[in-house]
Amino acid sequence: MKELLEHINLKNLPKHLAIIMDGNGRWAKQKGMMRVIGHENGTQSVKIVVENCARLGISHLTLYAFSTENWGRPTGEVSFLMSLFERLLQKELKEMEEEEVCINFIGDLTPLPPSLQQEMHRSMERTKHNQGVFFNVAINYGSRHEMINACKAIAQKVQQGELSADSINDQTISQHLYTSASPDPDLLIRTSGEMRLSNFMLWQLAYTEIYVTETFWPDFDKNQLDRAIVSFQQRDRRFGKVK
Ligand code: FPP
To answer: pTM above 0.85?
Structure first.
Protein backbone atom coordinates (compact mmCIF):
# COMPACT_ATOMS: atom_id res chain seq x y z
CA MET A 1 0.00 0.00 0.00
CA LYS A 2 2.80 2.40 0.97
CA GLU A 3 4.56 1.67 -2.32
CA LEU A 4 1.41 2.48 -4.30
CA LEU A 5 0.79 5.73 -2.48
CA GLU A 6 4.36 6.91 -3.16
CA HIS A 7 3.84 6.78 -6.92
CA ILE A 8 0.18 7.35 -7.48
CA ASN A 9 -1.53 10.69 -7.36
CA LEU A 10 -4.75 9.83 -5.57
CA LYS A 11 -6.36 13.01 -6.94
CA ASN A 12 -5.96 11.91 -10.55
CA LEU A 13 -7.20 8.35 -10.62
CA PRO A 14 -9.13 6.86 -13.53
CA LYS A 15 -12.81 6.85 -12.59
CA HIS A 16 -13.32 3.82 -14.77
CA LEU A 17 -10.67 1.20 -15.46
CA ALA A 18 -11.28 -1.40 -18.17
CA ILE A 19 -9.08 -4.44 -18.72
CA ILE A 20 -8.69 -6.95 -21.54
CA MET A 21 -7.27 -9.90 -19.60
CA ASP A 22 -5.10 -11.73 -22.10
CA GLY A 23 -2.33 -14.32 -22.10
CA ASN A 24 -3.74 -17.01 -19.80
CA GLY A 25 -3.15 -19.72 -22.39
CA ARG A 26 0.42 -18.61 -23.17
CA TRP A 27 1.22 -18.29 -19.46
CA ALA A 28 0.23 -21.93 -18.98
CA LYS A 29 1.97 -23.12 -22.14
CA GLN A 30 5.20 -21.46 -21.05
CA LYS A 31 5.05 -23.54 -17.89
CA GLY A 32 4.19 -26.75 -19.75
CA MET A 33 0.65 -26.75 -18.32
CA MET A 34 -2.81 -26.98 -19.87
CA ARG A 35 -4.38 -23.69 -21.02
CA VAL A 36 -7.18 -23.94 -18.47
CA ILE A 37 -4.62 -23.76 -15.64
CA GLY A 38 -3.85 -20.29 -16.97
CA HIS A 39 -7.51 -19.32 -16.58
CA GLU A 40 -7.59 -20.77 -13.07
CA ASN A 41 -4.50 -18.73 -12.10
CA GLY A 42 -5.94 -15.65 -13.79
CA THR A 43 -8.61 -15.51 -11.08
CA GLN A 44 -5.90 -14.44 -8.60
CA SER A 45 -5.19 -11.36 -10.71
CA VAL A 46 -8.92 -10.58 -10.87
CA LYS A 47 -9.02 -10.58 -7.06
CA ILE A 48 -5.92 -8.37 -6.81
CA VAL A 49 -7.36 -5.81 -9.25
CA VAL A 50 -10.77 -5.66 -7.54
CA GLU A 51 -9.16 -5.28 -4.10
CA ASN A 52 -6.81 -2.56 -5.29
CA CYS A 53 -9.54 -0.61 -7.06
CA ALA A 54 -11.44 -0.68 -3.78
CA ARG A 55 -8.39 0.43 -1.80
CA LEU A 56 -7.45 3.24 -4.19
CA GLY A 57 -10.98 4.47 -4.77
CA ILE A 58 -11.36 3.61 -8.47
CA SER A 59 -15.11 3.54 -8.66
CA HIS A 60 -15.79 1.57 -11.87
CA LEU A 61 -14.00 -1.52 -13.15
CA THR A 62 -14.81 -3.56 -16.26
CA LEU A 63 -13.12 -6.88 -17.04
CA TYR A 64 -13.46 -8.70 -20.36
CA ALA A 65 -13.90 -12.32 -19.31
CA PHE A 66 -15.54 -13.99 -22.33
CA SER A 67 -16.27 -12.57 -25.76
CA THR A 68 -18.99 -13.54 -28.22
CA GLU A 69 -16.12 -14.95 -30.34
CA ASN A 70 -14.75 -17.13 -27.50
CA TRP A 71 -17.44 -19.78 -28.19
CA GLY A 72 -15.17 -20.83 -31.06
CA ARG A 73 -12.60 -22.25 -28.59
CA PRO A 74 -12.37 -26.00 -27.91
CA THR A 75 -15.52 -27.25 -26.12
CA GLY A 76 -13.53 -28.41 -23.10
CA GLU A 77 -12.03 -24.94 -22.59
CA VAL A 78 -15.43 -23.23 -22.97
CA SER A 79 -17.09 -25.51 -20.44
CA PHE A 80 -14.14 -25.12 -18.06
CA LEU A 81 -14.53 -21.34 -18.24
CA MET A 82 -18.29 -21.54 -17.61
CA SER A 83 -17.81 -23.68 -14.53
CA LEU A 84 -14.90 -21.48 -13.39
CA PHE A 85 -17.16 -18.39 -13.53
CA GLU A 86 -19.80 -20.21 -11.53
CA ARG A 87 -17.34 -21.52 -8.93
CA LEU A 88 -15.80 -18.10 -8.58
CA LEU A 89 -19.14 -16.42 -7.97
CA GLN A 90 -20.08 -18.98 -5.32
CA LYS A 91 -16.71 -18.62 -3.62
CA GLU A 92 -16.32 -14.83 -3.77
CA LEU A 93 -19.85 -13.53 -3.24
CA LYS A 94 -19.43 -13.18 0.53
CA GLU A 95 -16.18 -11.26 0.15
CA MET A 96 -17.68 -8.99 -2.52
CA GLU A 97 -20.53 -8.22 -0.17
CA GLU A 98 -18.09 -7.39 2.64
CA GLU A 99 -15.95 -5.24 0.34
CA GLU A 100 -19.06 -3.31 -0.82
CA VAL A 101 -18.47 -4.39 -4.46
CA CYS A 102 -21.51 -4.06 -6.72
CA ILE A 103 -21.25 -6.69 -9.45
CA ASN A 104 -22.91 -6.23 -12.82
CA PHE A 105 -22.71 -8.60 -15.78
CA ILE A 106 -22.64 -7.13 -19.26
CA GLY A 107 -23.25 -9.11 -22.42
CA ASP A 108 -25.95 -11.46 -23.66
CA LEU A 109 -26.40 -13.82 -20.72
CA THR A 110 -29.19 -15.91 -22.25
CA PRO A 111 -27.02 -18.59 -23.97
CA LEU A 112 -25.02 -19.24 -20.77
CA PRO A 113 -25.63 -22.40 -18.71
CA PRO A 114 -28.79 -21.90 -16.58
CA SER A 115 -26.96 -22.62 -13.30
CA LEU A 116 -24.40 -19.91 -14.14
CA GLN A 117 -27.16 -17.45 -15.05
CA GLN A 118 -28.75 -18.17 -11.68
CA GLU A 119 -25.50 -17.40 -9.82
CA MET A 120 -25.08 -14.23 -11.87
CA HIS A 121 -28.55 -12.96 -11.04
CA ARG A 122 -28.13 -13.94 -7.39
CA SER A 123 -24.82 -12.04 -7.09
CA MET A 124 -26.19 -8.96 -8.88
CA GLU A 125 -29.24 -8.97 -6.62
CA ARG A 126 -27.21 -9.46 -3.43
CA THR A 127 -24.70 -6.69 -4.21
CA LYS A 128 -26.94 -4.15 -5.94
CA HIS A 129 -27.02 -1.69 -3.03
CA ASN A 130 -23.27 -1.79 -2.42
CA GLN A 131 -21.55 1.57 -2.63
CA GLY A 132 -17.96 0.47 -3.37
CA VAL A 133 -16.45 -0.54 -6.71
CA PHE A 134 -19.02 -0.93 -9.51
CA PHE A 135 -17.67 -4.08 -11.13
CA ASN A 136 -18.79 -4.89 -14.69
CA VAL A 137 -17.89 -8.38 -15.84
CA ALA A 138 -18.22 -8.81 -19.61
CA ILE A 139 -19.34 -12.35 -20.39
CA ASN A 140 -20.59 -13.33 -23.83
CA TYR A 141 -19.94 -9.69 -24.62
CA GLY A 142 -19.36 -8.24 -28.08
CA SER A 143 -19.34 -4.52 -28.69
CA ARG A 144 -20.88 -4.70 -32.16
CA HIS A 145 -23.70 -6.85 -30.82
CA GLU A 146 -24.19 -4.34 -28.00
CA MET A 147 -24.41 -1.47 -30.50
CA ILE A 148 -26.85 -3.36 -32.75
CA ASN A 149 -29.09 -3.92 -29.71
CA ALA A 150 -28.86 -0.25 -28.79
CA CYS A 151 -29.81 0.79 -32.36
CA LYS A 152 -32.82 -1.55 -32.30
CA ALA A 153 -34.02 -0.22 -28.94
CA ILE A 154 -33.62 3.39 -30.07
CA ALA A 155 -35.35 2.70 -33.41
CA GLN A 156 -38.25 1.14 -31.56
CA LYS A 157 -38.62 4.22 -29.36
CA VAL A 158 -38.60 6.45 -32.44
CA GLN A 159 -41.19 4.22 -34.11
CA GLN A 160 -43.43 4.39 -31.04
CA GLY A 161 -43.08 8.16 -30.85
CA GLU A 162 -41.22 8.14 -27.51
CA LEU A 163 -38.15 9.74 -29.08
CA SER A 164 -37.56 11.99 -32.08
CA ALA A 165 -34.81 10.93 -34.52
CA ASP A 166 -33.40 14.47 -34.39
CA SER A 167 -32.82 14.32 -30.66
CA ILE A 168 -30.52 11.26 -30.81
CA ASN A 169 -27.08 12.20 -29.52
CA ASP A 170 -24.01 10.66 -27.79
CA GLN A 171 -25.90 10.34 -24.55
CA THR A 172 -28.81 8.50 -26.17
CA ILE A 173 -26.41 5.84 -27.47
CA SER A 174 -24.49 5.55 -24.17
CA GLN A 175 -27.73 5.15 -22.25
CA HIS A 176 -28.73 2.19 -24.40
CA LEU A 177 -25.49 0.25 -23.96
CA TYR A 178 -24.90 -2.45 -21.32
CA THR A 179 -22.55 0.00 -19.59
CA SER A 180 -25.14 2.73 -19.09
CA ALA A 181 -24.43 2.79 -15.34
CA SER A 182 -20.72 3.60 -15.82
CA PRO A 183 -18.85 6.58 -17.27
CA ASP A 184 -16.64 5.88 -20.31
CA PRO A 185 -13.36 4.22 -19.26
CA ASP A 186 -10.42 6.58 -18.65
CA LEU A 187 -7.86 3.80 -18.85
CA LEU A 188 -7.81 0.53 -20.79
CA ILE A 189 -5.18 -2.05 -19.88
CA ARG A 190 -4.46 -4.99 -22.17
CA THR A 191 -2.09 -7.68 -20.99
CA SER A 192 0.18 -10.00 -23.03
CA GLY A 193 1.37 -7.39 -25.53
CA GLU A 194 -1.46 -7.60 -28.08
CA MET A 195 -2.41 -4.21 -29.53
CA ARG A 196 -6.04 -4.60 -30.51
CA LEU A 197 -9.48 -3.95 -29.08
CA SER A 198 -11.02 -7.33 -29.92
CA ASN A 199 -14.60 -6.06 -30.16
CA PHE A 200 -14.46 -4.57 -26.64
CA MET A 201 -16.34 -1.37 -25.77
CA LEU A 202 -15.76 0.23 -29.17
CA TRP A 203 -18.09 3.16 -28.45
CA GLN A 204 -17.05 3.66 -24.84
CA LEU A 205 -13.28 3.68 -25.56
CA ALA A 206 -13.39 6.68 -27.93
CA TYR A 207 -11.12 8.84 -25.70
CA THR A 208 -9.69 6.22 -23.37
CA GLU A 209 -5.95 6.06 -22.67
CA ILE A 210 -4.54 2.67 -23.65
CA TYR A 211 -1.82 0.84 -21.72
CA VAL A 212 -0.41 -2.41 -23.08
CA THR A 213 1.88 -4.58 -20.99
CA GLU A 214 3.80 -7.67 -22.11
CA THR A 215 2.87 -9.36 -18.81
CA PHE A 216 0.52 -12.34 -19.11
CA TRP A 217 -2.72 -11.91 -17.15
CA PRO A 218 -1.95 -14.48 -14.39
CA ASP A 219 1.24 -12.48 -13.57
CA PHE A 220 -0.57 -9.14 -13.44
CA ASP A 221 -0.28 -7.91 -9.86
CA LYS A 222 -0.45 -4.83 -7.67
CA ASN A 223 2.85 -3.45 -9.01
CA GLN A 224 1.69 -3.87 -12.58
CA LEU A 225 -1.52 -2.02 -11.80
CA ASP A 226 0.52 0.67 -10.06
CA ARG A 227 2.66 1.09 -13.19
CA ALA A 228 -0.36 1.34 -15.47
CA ILE A 229 -1.95 4.03 -13.30
CA VAL A 230 1.30 6.02 -13.07
CA SER A 231 1.59 5.85 -16.88
CA PHE A 232 -2.02 7.06 -17.19
CA GLN A 233 -1.26 9.97 -14.87
CA GLN A 234 1.60 11.09 -17.12
CA ARG A 235 -0.64 11.35 -20.19
CA ASP A 236 -1.78 14.67 -21.57
CA ARG A 237 -5.47 14.10 -22.26
CA ARG A 238 -6.72 16.65 -24.75
CA PHE A 239 -9.90 14.97 -25.98
CA GLY A 240 -9.16 16.22 -29.50
CA LYS A 241 -8.69 19.84 -28.36
CA VAL A 242 -5.64 22.08 -28.13
CA LYS A 243 -4.48 23.28 -24.71
C1 FPP B 1 -7.73 -14.58 -22.25
O2 FPP B 1 -6.56 -15.38 -22.29
C3 FPP B 1 -8.56 -14.92 -21.09
C4 FPP B 1 -9.84 -15.38 -21.11
C5 FPP B 1 -10.57 -15.62 -22.37
C6 FPP B 1 -10.57 -15.75 -19.88
C7 FPP B 1 -10.38 -14.82 -18.71
C8 FPP B 1 -11.04 -15.38 -17.52
C9 FPP B 1 -10.54 -15.37 -16.27
C10 FPP B 1 -9.26 -14.75 -15.89
C11 FPP B 1 -11.33 -16.05 -15.19
C12 FPP B 1 -12.19 -15.29 -14.28
C13 FPP B 1 -12.57 -13.91 -14.57
C14 FPP B 1 -13.70 -13.26 -14.15
C15 FPP B 1 -13.74 -11.78 -14.17
C16 FPP B 1 -14.94 -13.93 -13.71
P17 FPP B 1 -6.32 -16.34 -23.54
O18 FPP B 1 -6.91 -17.67 -23.23
O19 FPP B 1 -6.86 -15.70 -24.78
O20 FPP B 1 -4.76 -16.42 -23.59
P21 FPP B 1 -3.85 -16.65 -24.90
O22 FPP B 1 -4.04 -15.43 -25.76
O23 FPP B 1 -2.47 -16.74 -24.33
O24 FPP B 1 -4.31 -17.90 -25.54
So the answer is: yes
